[in-house]
Write a structure and sequence with these properties.
With about 325 residues, the chain is of the alpha+beta class. The chain has a domain at about 10-40 and about 55-165 and about 230-320: Aminopeptidase (3-Layer(aba) Sandwich). It contains 10 helices and 12 strands. The strands form 4 sheets. Strands 9-4-1-2-3-10 form a 6-stranded mixed sheet, with helices on both faces. Helix 1 packs parallel to helix 7, helix 1 packs across helix 9 and helix 5 crosses helix 6. The protein starts with 10 loop residues before the first helix and ends in a 19-residue tail after the last helix.
C-alpha cells in the first residue's frame, strides 16, 4: 500500500486554520490560568534585518515583509505530486496560494535534458534532503524565499476533513474513474451537484483529473484538478475558521510533518484571528504545457518568468519599475 498518495494542499486548512486555531483554543481553555502562551517579542519566524547595502527594492521588501511563506506538499510514493506555496501576511491578514504543477520543468544538470527527473515532482525522492531540495527548487522557480514546509499524508487529510464535519462543494461534473492497477485499486464515483464531501470522497475528488470512457474529464487536465483543489481549500478554510475544536489537534497532528514549531504556530494562530477567505487569493504558477524531447516526448510545464515576476512584485507591493536587468526571479530551464 502506498505510504503517501496524491494529496492537495488541504494542509493549509489543516495547519494554518484548523491546527493553529485548535492550538490557540486549546491553550486558552486548558492552560492553568486560561491564558495563551505568547511567543517572545523577537519573532522566531522573521529573520534578523541585514544592512541595505546591495539589496534590490524587491529584496528589501522581502526582508521587511510580515509574510510567512510555507511550502505545502502532497505525495505519491517518492514524488511530490501536489506542490503549493502559501504566503500569509501576518499584518494585513492576506493569504496567497500559488499552485505549482507537478510537471513543472526544473533543470538539474545530473539528469538528461528532458527526462522525468527534470520535473519538479521528482526532486523530493532523488535528493539527499528532500524537503530542503524542494524548497530550494520552488525558491529558484518563483524567486520567493520559502521559510517553512508542511506535508500531510492520506490519513491526515481524511482525519482533517472528517474532523471539521466535511467540506461543502458544488461538484461540476460526474467524476467517474477506475484504475484497477493502482495500489490499492482506485474507484472514483462522485455525482455532480451541491454536497458535503467527507474523508475518502475528498481524496477521490482531489485526485480526479480524467473520466472513464463515456464520462467527462476536466478540459484542461491537471490544471483543472489544481483549480478544483483550490476551491476545496477555500471551502475547507472557511469552515475551519468557524470552528473551535481542540480535538482537531489530536485527530490530525500525528499525520503532519513540518518544521513549524509550536511557538511559531501559536504566533500564527494569534495573527490569523480575523482572517477571512475573502482575503485568500489562489492562482496557478504562470506557464504553459509543452511536449519536449523524444523517445517518447514528455509533457512539461514551462514557467513564464516574466509573468512570475509580476506576481512576486505584486505580492510584496513593489512596482515593476523597481526591477533591474540583473534580478532574476524565475528559473524556467533551457
Amino acid at each position: 500500500m502506498k505510504q503517501f498518495i496524491k494529496v492537495f494542499c488541504i494542509s493549509l486548512a489543516i495547519f494554518s486554520a484548523v491546527i493553529a486555531t485548535g492550538i490557540y483554543t486549546y491553550a486558552k481553555f486548558f492552560s492553568p490560568e486560561g491564558t495563551i502562551p505568547v511567543p517572545d517579542e523577537e519573532d522566531p519566524i522573521v529573520a534578523e534585518e541585514d544592512e541595505d547595502d546591495g539589496l534590490t527594492p524587491l529584496e528589501k521588501a522581502m526582508r521587511d515583509s510580515n509574510r510567512v511563506n510555507a511550502l505545502l506538499l502532497g505525495f505519491e510514493g517518492a514524488r511530490s505530486d501536489t506542490i503549493m506555496l502559501a504566503s500569509f501576511d501576518r499584518k494585513t491578514k492576506e493569504a496567497d496560494l500559488i499552485s505549482i504543477p507537478r510537471d513543472t520543468y526544473y533543470k538539474r544538470d545530473k539528469y538528461s535534458a528532458y527526462s522525468e527527473m527534470q520535473k519538479i515532482n521528482a526532486v523530493y525522492g532523488t535528493e539527499e534532503d528532500g524537503y530542503k531540495a524542494v524548497m530550494k527548487a520552488v525558491e529558484e522557480i518563483t524567486g520567493i524565499s520559502v521559510d517553512k514546509y508542511v506535508a500531510v499524508n492520506y490519513d491526515g487529510v481524511r482525519a482533517a476533513v472528517d474532523a471539521i464535519g466535511g467540506v461543502e462543494m458544488n461538484v461540476p461534473i460526474h467524476m467517474k474513474y477506475t484504475d484497477i492497477y493502482d495500489k490499492p485499486p482506485l474507484y472514483i464515483d462522485i455525482k455532480p451537484g451541491p454536497q458535503i464531501i467527507y474523508g475518502d470522497k475528498a481524496m477521490e475528488l482531489l485526485r480526479f483529473r480524467q473520466g472513464d470512457p463515456g464520462y467527462p474529464s476536466f478540459p484542461n487536465g491537471d490544471l483543472g484538478r489544481v483549480e478544483m483543489q483550490q476551491q476545496f481549500i477555500k471551502s475547507a478554510i472557511k469552515k475551519s475558521l468557524s470552528l473551535k475544536l481542540p480535538s482537531v489537534i489530536s485527530a490530525v497532528y500525528p499525520y503532519v510533518e513540518t518544521n513549524f514549531t509550536i511557538t511559531e504556530l501559536l504566533g500564527l494562530a494569534k495573527d490569523a484571528i480575523g482572517f477571512s477567505t475573502d482575503n485568500l487569493k489562489a492562482q496557478v504558477l504562470p506557464g504553459e504545457a509543452k511536449l519536449l524531447g523524444n523517445n517518447p516526448p514528455l509533457s512539461f510545464y514551462i514557467p513564464n518568468g516574466q509573468e512570475i515576476r509580476k506576481i512576486v512584485y505584486d505580492l510584496y507591493d513593489v512596482p515593476l519599475t523597481a526591477s533591474t536587468e540583473e534580478e532574476s526571479v524565475a528559473h524556467a530551464g533551457d
